[in-house]
Amino acid sequence: MTEDYIQDYIKAGKAVIAAKKLAKEIVKPGAFFLDVANKIEAEIYKNGCELSFPVNMSLNEVAAHYSPVIDDKTLIPESGLLKIDIGSHFNGYIADSAITLNLGEDPKLQTYIDAAEEGLEAAIEIFKPGTKLYELGEVIAQKIISHGLRPITNLGGHELKQYNLHAGPFIPNYKETLHSEVLKPGDAYACEPFTTSGVGKVVNGKHSYIYRFAKRKKKNLPYEQQGYMNKIEKNTNHLPFSPRFLENKNLIPKNKIQRTIDAFVRKNILDHYPILIERSGEFVAQQEHTIIIDLDGNTIVTTK
């Protein structure tokens, strides 16, 4: 392995930094989720990178996996916690970062954000070769609990590899010693504390808005669907995507997109990602950075 991949991570990180900056400027009460998402994703392309997943815009008790649908009419409300999770890649090397916006500038809700940010910064401080993943979780939880909140224990960070958003080892948001893998030079991870005043667990919602190409199907697939399957596989690189991506890239006629997706989910050609909701219905905040260790053991945060 050479150091070239580090520069690819950094380039992807710069695209995400630009997209986060734009998000802070354009997220306003009354704006359409759809407009915000399209502009954020366009900023990734403008900076010479591709999407590693569709922008997530998850409000209040929804912790993750809401991405605006085609013709989405959802409006940003006057108050609440809006999590903006953005991913880009360059040559398959992924930057993944999230911020939470306090729409009504509620001091109580700001505590959720501050707790997540402090947990993330505490993890970054010890993100060095030799650190165990559960040790990251331990310092994250300490910071969150000190604010009278709870970490979400069944969500956490994840290793990043080329064209692989969830590559294996998991960074827990509390001290879970099962996750005893040791950080080493060459590693790249997304670290993402989630905070809540609820029970600290998420459950699957009823709907999915994000999909990923899983496997090809050769038998009993109509010719038209074979063409659509090939286009999805080729254009998404097996990374998560939104139906909006298929529309924006003109890969499938608009009136056939959802029908095709539903058929492909049934045939296991596509995986789907249900929205994740805090089990007790309490609000959730999230902060996230991508962190890599170069081959000399130096820590680089690509999305600050």
Verbal overview:
- The protein is built from 7 helices and 14 strands.
- The chain has helices at residues 4-26, 33-46, 107-125, 133-146, 223-236, 243-248, 257-266; strands at residues 50-59, 62-64, 81-90, 93-102, 150-151, 157-159, 170-171, 188-191, 194-196, 202-213, 270-278, 284-286, 289-293, 299-301.
Question: Could you provide a short overview of the structure?
Answer:
This protein is α+β, with helices and mostly antiparallel strands.
Q: Biggest sheet, strands in spatial order?
A: 7-6-8-13-14
Percent in helix: 25-40%
Shape summary: globular
- What's the number of domains? 2
CATH classification, class level of the largest domain: Alpha Beta
The arrangement of helices and strands along the chain is: HHEEEEHHEEEEEEHHHEEEE
As for the CATH topology of the largest domain, it is Creatine Amidinohydrolase
Looking at CATH, the homologous superfamily of the largest domain is: Creatinase/methionine aminopeptidase superfamily
Per DSSP, the total helix count is: 7
* Mean residue pLDDT: 97
Secondary structure layout plus pairing:
Layout: H1 4-26, H2 33-46, E1 50-59, E2 62-64, E3 81-90, E4 93-102, H3 107-125, H4 133-146, E5 150-151, E6 157-159, E7 170-171, E8 188-191, E9 194-196, E10 202-213, H5 223-236, H6 243-248, H7 257-266, E11 270-278, E12 284-286, E13 289-293, E14 299-301
Antiparallel strand pairs: 1-3, 2-11, 3-4, 5-9, 6-7, 6-8, 8-13, 9-12, 10-11, 13-14
